[in-house]
Amino acid sequence: MCPLEYYEGGTISLCFVRRCCPLAMAFRDVNSRRHIGLQQLSSLASAGRTLLGPMKSCKFVVDESTNQSMLICSAVRLIESLDLSSAAGQLLNETIQAQNKEFKTGMSTLLFLVGAWSNAVLECLQQNVPVSAIVSAMSEGLNSCCEKVQCLQRSVHDVNKELCSSSVRPNTSSSKTYEVACDSFLNPQIFLCLQKEVSPSKELVPRNSCSRQEADSNLNKGLVLPLAGFGSIASPVRSADGNNASVISGSGVSASSCKQKRLTHSRYFSALATSPSSSQLDDSQVCLSGQSAHLCECYGLGHLARALSHGNEPNMKLLKSIVAYQHERAECSGSSQFNIAEVVTCCLPGLPESYSCVCPGFVTLISPEQATVIKHFGDKPLRILLTEGDLTEAYRHLGFTKPRNVRTMLERPDLQEGRPGDVWLNTSLDILMRSQVSLVLVKGHVCENLLERCVANKILVIGSVPQKVLSAFGEASGAQPVTYLTQLSASCVGSGAQLELWTASDGRAMDLGELVPVRIRVRGLALLTAVLTTAVPAKMQLVEDLFWTSVYRLHHALRDGKVFLGGGAVELLCLSHSQALAEQALKLVNKKPVKEFHSPWLAASSAQYKPVVLQALASGWSQYLAAVMCNTAKATSLFEARTLIEHHLKKAADCGSPSAYVLKEFQTGGVFRGGPVPSTGSAEGCRVYDNVTAKTEAWRRALDLVLLVLQTDAEIISGPQSNQLLNSPASSEFMFL
């Protein structure tokens, strides 16, 4: 399979990884006389060297059993694709899965540092450094680095303010107003619904005392207005006759210059600006209300999302659309400005990536047979039922315990002839029809026979629905989840659900052959679906992983309230600090060179080993920086990258304060700028930031794993049967300390 057949314009560096390859092939360079566990960690981690930085080299994972391939660029997918039969491989997998479960970011950093520090510890062992000294010095060194880099933390508020002030540019026109470019991936076909679903308290303030019914009537006629998604902003709106009319949001104050004109340009809904319906405006002029006026979308975290995206431009635009919608809801309902629990994804392989968008409501895939039921529903509101668990006859809730010494042969006699399970099917269908339920959302699996019977009776049943989707529909529709259909009552059924076929940005309904995308919505539903598309089916997992990475980076930044300076600034300070600690430790041993200790167990103090261990810790930071610089095209080779690193280390040392030097370089846009990523044309376009907690936890998890493998093997080797192992034929496979 040629990797270039998937890409028509340009080439991409790819690596093929066989899912079912023997683990022995991954450890072909393992030296039996060295530490086996650490070598296995190093060999596994070496496969992820190209996954660092924004310019990742993707890998194709080929499943030999099905001969299908998948394009990946994350450490999680890489580790999942390897045959991890060794104990060290299992520990590595558990560590990366724990990082992914908690943060959804930082796994590539963790994987790389595991390999770098495994090699560093192996070098220490070759110099006969005791295990206890390695564990003590490395743990102390990393803790000191984590404390040192606290000076490189910036509050989210300050970052937003700085990026906002640098992004506002005066317009060259005579009006001297400010132009703010903003992209939106919101689906134009659902803008009207988006405007309607906002709470009426602060959503759209019509002038001339226009009533809510009149406003809804205007929306039904095609009136679409800018959404103040990235803050309360004074933005120019160009009318049909070419004049500019500013719509200023601020404490319910509308611009006095609001005229009754036809809008042909919208700040967020530019996709509809050219449509015939968007050019029709009713006599009532509508303005948005907010809290305070801003000249940029920083209030809605647009620039922060860009700085954390690390060049992931398409997903950053989707994220901006999510923040825009949620910010408008926050102003009206007082909820959180960015709530990750209200975001789900729907993957549509086979469509161009330009079809990706954000839709209010829940977008999912159903079979063509189920799609025929939607045409029967039309636009009428539906009664909805939420079911936890599986909708099958054999399902029992978690914790269900059958009575002991009792064997159930038949729950009740079946007086009618039929197949086994027909009684349950008839009863379940009877309950749904009596309750007049038209839509059933199930958290688990659905019985195929029941699914077919429901379709025949115009009932749509959708399985594998996430828990947060069920919760959102429960709050919006008033439905109460049930575990079994026999628990169904009138109070458990919700109302107001609407079903429709999902349409693309050009208004066409999509039919993907085996599956059909549909959208479910309820008035007041606090749920957004990011519809992700790609023309290459093997790339679908990659697109989804990159999207969630961008979302969680913004989520963790807001939760921490602070961010790290990105682009390698933090790691360079860690490298400089580790080398400084090594030099200080070396002075304590009278500046004597430490090469090899022939009798480590007779050493008077572990202080003499500190310089070697701390220098090994620093080598891990150096390898990380070199790999990032190569992957971001700042250096053409590892030699050039290491030369640049040494150059900056020397300048930092000459400066007297490495942290001050790093801050200065970051502010002036030196080595810590982002790589060749898409820029918005502004100076801050390539400035990058990193998460604080996710990054530091990745460091700690990487070192903890390396030290755990080191100490575990050491304990096994130095056990009470060490003499038997020493005299056995297998002694060459171990290294005795």
Automatic annotation (TrEMBL):
A cellular component term, taken from the record's GO annotations: cilium
Domain of life according to the entry: Eukaryota
Gene3D superfamilies, A to Z: GroEL, GroEL-like equatorial domain, TCP-1-like chaperonin intermediate domain
InterPro entries linked to this entry: BBS12, GroEL-like_apical_dom_sf, GROEL-like_equatorial_sf, TCP-1-like_intermed_sf
Entry's Gene Ontology BP terms: chaperone-mediated protein complex assembly; eating behavior; fat cell differentiation; intraciliary transport; negative regulation of fat cell differentiation; negative regulation of stem cell differentiation; photoreceptor cell maintenance; stem cell differentiation
Protein name: Bardet-Biedl syndrome 12
The organism of origin for this protein: Anas platyrhynchos platyrhynchos
